[in-house]
Amino acid sequence: MDTGKLESPGPENLGAELHRLIAELFPICRSITGDGFRETLRRLGELVPLKVHEVPTGTRVFDWVVPREWNIRDAYVKDRTGRRVIDFGQSNLHVVNYSAPIRATLTRAELQEHLFTLPEHPEWIPYRTSYYNESWGFCLTHNQLLQMKDERYEVVIDSTLEDGHLTYGEVFLEGTSNEEVLITCHACHPSLCNDNLSGVAIAAYLARALRWTRHRFSYRILFIPGTIGSITWLALNEDKVPRIRHGLVLALLGDAGPFTYKRTRRGNAEIDRVAGYVLGGLPGENRVRDFTPYGYDERQFCSPGFNLPVGSLMRTPNGEYPEYHTSADDLDFVKPGQLAKSYAVCMSIVDVLENNRKYVNVNPKCEPQLGKRGLYRSSGGDAMPRESEMALLWVLNQSDGTTDLLDIAERSRLPFDAVRLAADALRESGLLETCEKH
Amino acid sequence: MDTGKLESPGPENLGAELHRLIAELFPICRSITGDGFRETLRRLGELVPLKVHEVPTGTRVFDWVVPREWNIRDAYVKDRTGRRVIDFGQSNLHVVNYSAPIRATLTRAELQEHLFTLPEHPEWIPYRTSYYNESWGFCLTHNQLLQMKDERYEVVIDSTLEDGHLTYGEVFLEGTSNEEVLITCHACHPSLCNDNLSGVAIAAYLARALRWTRHRFSYRILFIPGTIGSITWLALNEDKVPRIRHGLVLALLGDAGPFTYKRTRRGNAEIDRVAGYVLGGLPGENRVRDFTPYGYDERQFCSPGFNLPVGSLMRTPNGEYPEYHTSADDLDFVKPGQLAKSYAVCMSIVDVLENNRKYVNVNPKCEPQLGKRGLYRSSGGDAMPRESEMALLWVLNQSDGTTDLLDIAERSRLPFDAVRLAADALRESGLLETCEKH
Amino acid sequence: MDTGKLESPGPENLGAELHRLIAELFPICRSITGDGFRETLRRLGELVPLKVHEVPTGTRVFDWVVPREWNIRDAYVKDRTGRRVIDFGQSNLHVVNYSAPIRATLTRAELQEHLFTLPEHPEWIPYRTSYYNESWGFCLTHNQLLQMKDERYEVVIDSTLEDGHLTYGEVFLEGTSNEEVLITCHACHPSLCNDNLSGVAIAAYLARALRWTRHRFSYRILFIPGTIGSITWLALNEDKVPRIRHGLVLALLGDAGPFTYKRTRRGNAEIDRVAGYVLGGLPGENRVRDFTPYGYDERQFCSPGFNLPVGSLMRTPNGEYPEYHTSADDLDFVKPGQLAKSYAVCMSIVDVLENNRKYVNVNPKCEPQLGKRGLYRSSGGDAMPRESEMALLWVLNQSDGTTDLLDIAERSRLPFDAVRLAADALRESGLLETCEKH
């Protein structure tokens, strides 16, 4: 069956919608567990049919254990006048994420060991975490720090670390095949936009678009906390793993940088070829990089025991722009136009994945007579056939069951769409059969 | 057994002979069927032992059917004064090849739809065909067209489209092996020299040379109409297909351009390596290109159901020079020196194919003592051995049954002939055995 | 078991020691057999536990026969005044190596046929041999030749060619595995320093260092006459051949040129990757070249019947510097610093060979939690992990039993030592197991 070219069903002003969703989610204090994550999923559930999973603290997931749930109500550092010189209410980045509760009066020296700043960017608050080592801390601008000259400070973190759950969201969109495309994003960062509300928003809108489109593959879209989320999903869903035929981790898709596709550990999976082809056709200095075992959840999907065909799509990679993991990764840093373009690139990748098939020429000995079927002009002698005719010849010549349409597009240097249309025409004429069941 | 280096048995002035043959064949009005093709084969039969095959109209050949036979006696367009403003007698390109008969008086507007010119080359007549769609037409220079201002014209095409035969010629030259080298050319074009009387003439002279030379492979040389000819041969000779070990389609070998070798669909067949090696050793910007499913009869030989190791040798490829498929592809366009050089390149390819073998070193543990056999100088200490000595060392070291002499020549950067002579000497000394039966 | 990083146990002034050994061995008149070779081995035996083998004249070794033993006491050419115009006592290069005895008075013309000079270097004596063709001759400077104007000369070569033995030396250093590293050098050249006393001295000092170091592989170091020595060893030790896992022929290691590694015949053996990696990390224009069947004993080890993973390490290759095989390859040509650097490169290759292993991640599904094992920092949010942390992630991700540490170093662009240390730490934590028995 033919799914046709997937059209974005979104509104004209998709970039603005994506940015608006990010703005709504921005203030929530997310972490790898807790109510901030739940609230984020609740909002996404208004857009797409999201199933929320709760995994209890203490659940063993491979070498890891689901940690205690973290929630926070307030946190501050007060000077001797009672003024909050650091205030969680102003930015949730001010607290080291997963900080244990504390309520104490400390000397400046004692406090200093728990303070984190960025001297090279004195107006930015850094983002720090301490998930698996019980401790506490505050992040602040370097200029704030320079003004803290009191001898003693009152320190309060009104947080809890208690048995509870790890929460994640999952959208499953059934296709005509039970083979799956896995799309994941980490949704555990607090008030940071590019990392990774951009990925969250685009994944949600991809799910929304695919929900109303006929598609070959089934799509599983995960909104998970980084690392522990993918480990948990893999540990609890090993039965689903064999169905994953392609996968993509989405992150950092709102900045102004060129696109970066990071290959799967396999290096030559179909998703690698498809993403390379789509990025190769875009303007700008887009980059395809080899897999490395650092980054986002592709680290888990591409661990040697799974080695899944899961790549990663970003604009500027983690750590390669100064605003990364700071308060400067804010609503101004991600632009509607950039988000809309990232969404379009994702849809192009999905479109090629959906339409890339292997065919068999059912008439493989010599060329079939295309003219009598109205597929080829009837007079001869011109220098060169048209692009559509060349595409027919290429598809017929290469379709021996080992070559997919993307191979043919790359070998012939014809556009993928021209090759796909030729395959459609040949299939309608009975000259081509698909090798696949669905 | 050893065939030795093939020597061209031709006369000193081979280029002139090739051009003379082309000049003789030039006036004949050939098509994919009919008496022009028969007359061409009759003339070639004076040079080589040609078997003429006649395949009846209506014969099913894979997805095709052998068409009705086309013959033509005369054709013209007369103006109101009775003057032939277009006259088949002046050039057989004036009639669209395979035109149905017509005898009518038409308005200029009615006639116009059946006229073909080349505005960008106003003195040239284009070459057009309509083999599989019954219609008629005239080709003329654009300047001729500009002078046709009468209101009515008398139009006559005295042709027949009747049940008959498709005719082709075949030369078979038995070698010591029943493995075959297939050499084909299309011989269906009317008064055009480069395309493809150059290929026809060179194929005929190759056949003549091979007839009087001892050779390892059997050679099958086909003079066929394009497309339908190779389809017909393949359909009627499927039993012979498995014997084809190498193949070469010859076309466009008389122009002044550099050589172009178009690889087989396999891309790494022995003929690809051999032709690449021979062209690499020639002066000039010669080109080796990947297979594409457009061109000449390699399209059929390389269809996925056959996927034969058949490449194609040309100078400037089809459609890449302005004279292509026009009356400017005439006797002046193809030069004796260019034809002779093309012939020599074909013979070089045949020579390497004939002599390229895999050997086994019968003394594979350490080097044999070449000095005691008189194969190596007796004193030592010089900086480097001679080329002939290096060739002996290379052949001995590499001959483990997996590596052929061309591999060794390329790896050692020694000339193929030096490697071949070394292999001959080692075989005579009993140090080397061939892996092949013949 | 872990061998740790091999440290050179040598003295501070290793270059000077290597040069002193060369200076001691320099005056000895070595050949492929005879007392000069024995005297050389005796001196090496003072440094390392060398076993001396004597193989009788007439022993069949594959296609060769161990030749008669050659010894020489004196040789000269006297003019009519009784003056020695050519005197073996001044340089053993003056006699063509393996010259048969002669005692005669000859005309200048008769003598001329037995004289060898280098007109392009009129002050240098060439080095010539005639091992397998009984003859005699003298080598002299071209300036000497120009002064020989007498009509008659008295010619004496007081040599013997008699049944005796071929002598070679062998050091065997047992490792924890019975898989062997073969290190060989030719020790048959008379007063020539770079070719190959440099290789002899470095091989001896490598053996000395390895003797006192714990190592995984067993090491077999051969001091053999060129060609006939390796043929003899292979013929008499075929049972040991399957144990050779890596090999290196050492020659020409004292000149000032960049390093040259010549690949094994296989071209992709582990020794090829290791030597390429080590040379790639050195300053200067070092070269890795493909195998050719000319050079030193790698010709025999890489003959097709053995095809051993034996490469060759040199500085400037044979025949590529003017002093090669002349009296200018003397004690001034090889410098202590150059010898010391060559020794260090050999040790680096040995170090990587020893430590390059394939591991299996015993926890291959998702990453293990490194933080709880103290292998990873506990706080998150920094832009990039440290090199040591990246090395842990790379080793875990790639260790599926197919990838060795050198692969991982090259893929990750991390130093081999960082990768090795990561593997050690992971193995100690029980997260990694070696694939090998030893």
Chain-wise SSE layout:
Three copies of one chain form a homotrimer.
Chain A: H1 14-25, H2 35-44, E1 51-56, E2 60-61, E3 64-65, E4 69-78, E5 84-87, E6 102-107, H3 108-112, E7 115-116, E8 138-139, H4 142-146, E9 152-162, E10 165-173, E11 180-186, H5 193-211, E12 218-224, H6 228-236, E13 244-250, E14 260-262, H7 270-280, E15 287-289, H8 298-301, E16 310-314, H9 336-355, E17 358-361, H10 387-398, E18 400-404, H11 405-412, H12 416-428, E19 432-434
Parallel strand pairs in A: 7-8, 11-12, 11-13, 13-16, 14-15
Antiparallel strand pairs in A: 1-10, 2-3, 4-5, 4-9, 6-9, 10-12, 14-16, 17-18, 17-19
Helix pairs in contact in A: 1-5, 1-9, 5-9, 7-9, 10-12, 11-12
Key traits:
4-stranded antiparallel sheet, Aminopeptidase, 3 domains, 22% strand, alpha/beta, homotrimer, elongated, 438 residues, Arc Repressor Mutant, subunit A, 19 strands
